[in-house]
């Protein structure tokens, strides 16, 4: 094994922020830090750890609040350097039809159905089913 450092971004179900490597130059060498990285209010963009003149990387994509500040800050966004795939809805959930419960995709072992009605009552379709 070589001593080369490797960086891995977490897997994500959808691509929220997309960079075009043919347009984005990492704001290098004009700016000390990529403007999109500086603008990110959630601090989840990092300058490219391999090559500073390449697009930044998005870490923790599920923490992106979809504010669009990164795109707004980019001087080349109109050329497509960075794009926000909106609406992203990168936190897909699935719903148990019987009860209306929602679960995150990837939950390895969803809990058994919860028979307690939600505060606002069951969804109308569940209520109808219960009354039958
Ligand atoms: S996407 Fe825009 S702001 Fe971000 S590094 Fe590339 S050129 Fe700079
Ligand atoms: S949309 Fe907002 S939170 Fe998401 S990467 Fe861009 S600046 Fe950060």
- Apparent shape: elongated
Number of DSSP helices? 3
What is the annotated CATH architecture of the largest domain?
A: 2-Layer Sandwich
Q: What is the β-strand count?
A: 6
Please tell me how large the radius of gyration is: 21 Å
CATH topology of the largest domain, anyone?
Answer: Alpha-Beta Plaits
Helix/strand class: alpha+beta
Give the strand line-up of the largest sheet. Answer: 1-4
Order of helices and strands: EHEEHEEEH
> Which cofactor or ligand species appear?
iron/sulfur cluster
**Spatial gap, N to C terminus:** 64 Å
Percent range for β-strand residues: 5-15%
Keywords:
binds iron/sulfur cluster; 14% strand; alpha+beta; 132 residues; elongated; two-stranded antiparallel ribbon; Alpha-Beta Plaits
Could you give the topology of this structure?
Blueprint: E1 17-19, H1 35-39, E2 45-46, E3 57-58, H2 69-73, E4 82-84, E5 93-96, E6 101-104, H3 124-131
Antiparallel strand pairs: 1-4, 2-3, 5-6
Bound molecules: iron/sulfur cluster (2 copies).
One iron/sulfur cluster (SF4) is lined by residues 17, 39-42, 44-45, 64-70, 84.
């Amino acid at each position: 094994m070589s001593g080369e450092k490797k960086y891995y971004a977490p897997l994500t179900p959808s691509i929220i922020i997309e960079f075009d490597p043919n347009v984005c130059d990492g704001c290098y060498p004009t700016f000390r830090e990529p403007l999109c990285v500086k603008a990110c209010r959630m601090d989840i963009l990092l300058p490219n750890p391999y090559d500073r003149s390449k697009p930044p990387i998005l870490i923790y994509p599920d923490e992106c609040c979809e504010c669009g500040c990164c795109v707004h800050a980019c001087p080349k966004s109109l050329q497509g350097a960075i794009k926000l795939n909106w609406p992203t809805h990168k936190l897909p959930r699935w719903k148990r039809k019987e009860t209306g419960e929602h679960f995150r995709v990837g939950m390895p072992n969803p809990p058994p159905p919860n028979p307690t009605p939600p505060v606002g009552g069951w969804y109308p379709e569940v209520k109808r089913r219960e009354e039958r």
